Amino acid sequence: MIEYQADLMSENQVLKEEIARLKQEKLSCKEDIENLTLEIIKLEGSLLDLQMKSKKREKTFKFMQLLSQQIIGAKDAWNIYEVTVKSLAENIGFDRAIIFRKKEDENFYPVASCGYSSEYLMTKMANPEFSKLAVEKQGILFNGKSIDKYRADWESEFQVKYFIAIAFAVNSEANHILFAGNQTEDTLRRPRLTIVDFETLQILANQIAITIRQNEFYAQNQRYSNRQGG
Questions:
Q1: Where are the alpha helices (DSSP H) in 107-229?
Q2: Are the C-beta atoms of 126 and 107 separated by less than 8 Å?
Q3: Per-residue pLDDT reduced to its tens digit, 60-71
Q4: CA–CA separation, 121 and 98 (whole Å)
Q5: What is residue 5's predicted lDDT score, i.e. its pLDDT?
Q6: What CATH number has the domain bearing residue 139?
Q7: Where in the sequence is the domain holding 97, given as residue range(s)?
């Protein structure tokens, strides 16, 4: 009888330990499930963010294609300038856009803009240090991850915090700067500026330069033909 009771007590102890172990496992599983649920929520959030950015970039790409077609069909350089800045600001999601052109005094002046008042840019000259840097580096990309720093007064000058500036050449020298910027890093209309945006604006700037040169060549031929006909 004593041995039976001892065996029973031993079994009870084993059962208690097993129950305690199972409870601990249950608690551990609960914590694992909670952690996995949080990870799933984070991953779903990241996936949604990527999907939204992908849609924004797809929309940007389509507008860029349309803008390239409009540039090709433009009649003259001034029309190209106006079409470009308007589309960058109204369709492609930039808060501000400017095209600067170098004049005889070697300074860059705005020839077209969108997002600024006409009074603001009527007689404004681009900061010489900004122009020099844009030309020397063939462009500037400034976003939240940029290593390069730029002068604090550029923010007030351009009224944006993040921007891309592309220097491009019509004829022999870099005599134009295409500028586009945003007040915030990630907007409802477009994601944070990246090297892809920089390269896309480079392609756009090249398209502008090619079309202007073609228009100038066509105009020269027309004048020559008119003189010959006269």
A1: 118-121, 128-136, 152-158, 195-229
A2: yes
A3: 666 667 777 777
A4: 9
A5: 55
A6: 3.30.450.40
A7: 57-229
Cα-Cα-Cα-Cα dihedral of 154, 159, 165, 171, to 10°?
-100
Strands 173-182 and 162-170: antiparallel
First-last CA distance in the chain: 134
Q: Report angle CA 123, 206, 217 to the nearest 5 degrees.
A: 85
Confidence of residue 21 (pLDDT cuts 50, 70, 90): confident
Check residue 194 and report its DSSP letter: -
CA 92/CA 102 separation, integer angstroms: 26
Contact 163, 151 (CB under 8 A): no
Q: What is the rounded distance in angstroms from the CA atom of residue 152 to the CA atom of residue 2?
A: 90
Picking from 172, 176, 170, the residue whose alpha carbon sits closest to that of residue 109 is: 176
Residue type, 199: E
Q: How many domains does the chain have?
A: 1
Which pTM does this prediction carry? 0.70
Residue 17: phi, psi to the nearest 5? -65, -40
In a domain, 28, yes or no: no
CB 138 within 8 A of CB 215: no
